[in-house]
User: What shape does this take?
Amino acid sequence: MTDLQKPTSLRVIQSASAATLSQVWRLALTFLSMWLIRRMMGPEELAVWQWAEPLFILLSITRDLGINGHLVRIERRRYGNFLLIVAVWGGLFAAGVALTAPWLAQLFKGHDAQTVEIIRVLAVFLWVQGLGLIPMTFFEAEHRLTRAIPAELTRNAVFAVTAVYLVWVGHGVWGVVFGHLLGSIVFTTVLWLSSRTGEPDGRMAVHIKVAEIPGLIKDSLPLAALSLLEQAVLNLDILLLGLVLDPEQVGEAGLSIYALFFFSRLIADSIGRAVYPAIFAYRHQPERAFGLYRVATLFLMCCFVPMAFFLHHNAEVVAYFLGGTEWTGAASYIAIAAFVPFVRPLTMFGREYLLAAHRDRLLIAYTVTNLVSLGGLGYVLIKFTELNELGMAVAGYFPLGTLFLAWGLWQLAPKPFLLLIREMLSLYLLGLVSFAAVWLIPSGSSATIFVTSAVAGLVFLVLAYRRHGQDLRSFLQWT
Assistant: This one.
């Protein structure tokens, strides 16, 4: 049976499994390599990378012009047009980033000559990574992410070995920078080889029709604006902290944010790569589309609810484990922001659901409101109170734009949406009950708190599976 002969649900499951496998591998290697690197570098030295990484996420969206997301939701996909755009526009844009590096560096309070050079090297990474996005978009849109696994595995191994070795021999943050550059070169090469080999009906066709490119860009730009705003919200913490605070505080906050969202990156990002095209595939079956969104949301909540309680109660242990003695200042941020995911459950896959429904304007209102509310409050708390970096941890509880997203979901599926809200509240209550004993343990008993929290998390997972396991099994049986 070829890929095209498989039912959509089977290809969705296989794509989600492949994406999750590659994501587990990537995060495991990244976790191990950065765990080692933090023991060789303090927060002040690593801060420039923690600031540059989200900056280049935003720059990559500008490079892509939203075309990768738009291709997933249209029927006729000309990947050759995308290639031409990335090769020409992406190359010019990367060159512009390199030329304006001295001005971009001003966005980092602790900038120096090294910051400028790092930006220029990452400009090369920006263009190379863009070339790899064409075959990756093909695999995502056609539910064939299993074929991207070799590229994912190779890239992450190359990064880990290169970064750890270069830091170990004394090159500092440059080890991380060159690890990413070399990994992206390998990733792009292997992806292209995979997309152009195999069964004839599974190869990516690279047809170019220049006359269609202006229309493609025009139709994709709203999605680019939306993605840019969305990523600005997601990466607002570090970018704002880097603008205002000293590198050491930025570095510690970066570790905190990494700890808080590690599992969401592990699970949500990988599943989301399969959920978006799957929801689009079910666009003529609204009940099934929302069912997929609901099951994906509940599944992720079953993971992050116990993790939030665990991080809150074990913040010092987590900070020490992730970074060592130089990084324990991150504990306060972790403890305060641990429950931030509780106010954002609908947003986990809500963006993908509304994108498939072409509710771009509503999503723009959602992201702009979040950017203003989170950024405005965060800046005030950082700049005009004694909270410093903890101001962003507090501001994270006020994503007012979520109200727009909830309204859009309710409009599309009123009854299923209300059912999902009740199920979410029941999971929060289950978390409170499961971890009730942990609140009673004296604060000085770190070992007891750690063990009790772990047991409470297991209890939560068992009870949650008994409640929602059938929903997951039912989806997996869809054909």
Summary: Residues 21 and 382 are 38 Å apart (CA to CA). Confidence is low (pLDDT under 50) at residues 1-10. The two ends are 15 Å apart (CA to CA). Residues 3-476 form one domain.
